[in-house]
Design goal:
Distance between the termini: 66 Å
Helix content: 25-40%
CATH class of the largest domain: Mainly Beta
CATH topology of the largest domain: Neuraminidase
CATH superfamily of the largest domain: Kelch-type beta propeller
CATH architecture of the largest domain: 6 Propeller
């Protein structure tokens, strides 16, 4: 029963392949041009481009005969566009579901052992046979599209996968959309995935290309960038030591943790993209890119000055690029991703690394960064008209996070010590206060350490004797129950 079902499925599959022959023949009638260069086969032990031998198969029939094993297998004749090949059907069936279906059917081509594929270029079929019988892959970049089409038509999965591997290494901004169109014309989801993988790895490096894609494709690219294993990274956001300190050079790297959090070591994965001994940056992750936003000290005509600078790190390509700097010269500010943009909030003037005094006040101006246009613009300022937040050197100020389309800011009011939450709606460019405030009677939190969000906002702070965790529900407008815990010396 199973054998009968298998034969029937094979016949249906073969019929579908025959039907596709006409449709794909029409597709092949259109030209597909990409720059000329050669793709090296991994079987080639040397470096550089694969040098193709003279194509003797075109003139010598013996070079178009493909046996397998001891040569006792069933041989068939395959007529392609200009040349005839004599091939072991059993081995070819292992490489191509098209020929497997033929071998298990009772169609005339099988009984006569002669298959007519005159719509398939002989050179492409020869490359397929070389790969299947001799594990030899040598395809020029300009021929990749045609080889993928034929491999897809013949259901030669392994051959197509090898072509796509070669394609992934030669895609360029000029050719990727042409290959994407081809993938959709021949209904090749594998080829489409290869192109999408290239576009997602270089999402913001190719804004002019991605702008030409429909919105659903852009959404898919963003989702693809978020796939894969997560890595915990560490970077020194501020450095005050000089070149004389040995730690300065070691600190000029981005570190990542290998393995689990408890057993692995930290290792440097890339050097920071500037040369300086003193710097102050804020970090933020958006679209799986790491952003360094701030500035560093450099030599000037008269002494030293701080240069505003921003950088973007792509973990897929392990590369840094310089991006537009902030409009305001900020230090110790918060940067938060929200609704596809980055918002810079608070901080104070970055002109030197001196400690702020009682006259130092937070910036109320808020800046929004558009990653697609690489541009900072001002949005509505913090509504701090009749109060100020207290200052601290321990972290970025004020604490900020995002949840949904809204930005949330938390600070200690200088005059009363109350904790005030501010909400910014990115859709309306509007700030509002979230009441009630958290008073000293509610929680003894002279110091604030952390503000984060899941389905509600979480606050971590402390005093001289204990640390406190509390929460705030935006929907109900209520503060949650406090959780306190004490830290013993040397124990976290």
């Amino acid at each position: 029963m199973i054998s009968l079902l298998r034969r029937r499925v094979s016949v249906v599959l073969l019929w579908i392949c025959r039907w596709l022959q006409y449709a794909l023949g029409r597709v092949w009638g259109t030209s597909f041009s990409v720059p000329h260069s050669l793709v090296t086969s991994p079987c080639n032990s040397g470096y550089g481009l694969y040098e193709r031998l003279p194509e003797e198969w075109k003139t010598k029939e013996v070079n178009r005969i493909y046996h397998s094993g001891d040569g006792s297998g069933t041989m068939i004749t395959v007529q392609t566009s200009t040349h005839t090949f004599y091939v072991d059907l059993g081995r070819l069936s292992e490489c191509s579901e098209y020929f497997r279906a033929l071998s298990q059917s009772s169609m005339r081509e099988t009984t006569e052992r002669r298959i007519l594929l005159d719509h398939i270029p002989s050179s492409v079929f020869h490359a397929l046979l070389e790969f299947c019988f001799r594990n030899d892959f040598a395809v020029t970049q300009e021929e990749l599209g045609e080889h993928i089409q034929v491999g897809t038509y013949l259901l030669a999965e392994t051959f197509v996968s090898r072509c796509l591997l070669a394609l992934s290494s030669v895609l360029t901004p000029d050719t990727c959309l042409s290959y994407l169109d081809l993938a959709r014309n021949i209904c090749s989801t594998e080829m489409e995935t290869t192109v999408f993988s290239y576009l997602s790895r270089n999402l913001l490096e190719l804004p002019h290309v991605n702008r030409r894609l429909p919105s659903e494709d852009k959404t898919l690219l963003i989702r693809l960038r978020g796939q894969g294993d997560l890595r915990l990274c560490s970077v020194r956001k501020e450095n005050l030591t000089s070149w004389k300190d040995l730690e300065t050079e070691a600190a000029r790297h981005l570190f990542a943790q290998d393995g689990s959090e408890t057993t692995s070591d930290w290792r440097p994965i890339t050097e920071l993209p500037f040369i300086a001994d003193k710097w102050c940056f804020t970090t933020v992750v958006l679209l799986n890119y790491l952003y360094l936003i701030g500035g560093y000290r450099q030599q000037a005509r008269r002494g030293w000055e701080f240069k505003m600078a921003s950088f973007r790190y792509n973990p897929f390509t392990n590369t840094w690029v310089s991006i537009a700097p902030l409009i305001k010269h900020r230090r110790h500010f918060s940067a938060v991703p929200c609704n596809g943009s980055i918002y810079a909030v608070g901080g104070w003037y970055l002109g030197s690394l001196v400690t702020p005094d009682s006259s130092t006040a937070l910036y109320t101006a808020v800046e929004r960064y558009d990653p697609w246009d690489d541009r900072w613009t001002f949005v509505s300022s913090l509504p701090m008209t009749d109060f100020q937040f207290t200052m601290s050197l321990s972290h970025d100020l004020p604490l900020a996070t995002s949840m949904g389309p809204c930005l949330y800011v938390l600070g200690n009011i200088q005059r009363t010590g109350e904790k005030l939450l501010l909400q910014y709606d990115t859709r309306q460019d509007l700030w509002s206060e979230l009441l009630p405030t958290l008073t000293r009677a509610d929680a003894d939190l002279p110091s604030l350490y952390f503000l984060g969000a899941t389905d509600q906002l979480f606050v971590i702070g402390g005093n001289n004797s204990e640390n406190v965790i509390t929460s705030f529900c935006v929907e109900s407008g209520q503060w949650g129950q406090n959780i306190t815990f004490k830290l013993e010396l040397g124990v976290i």
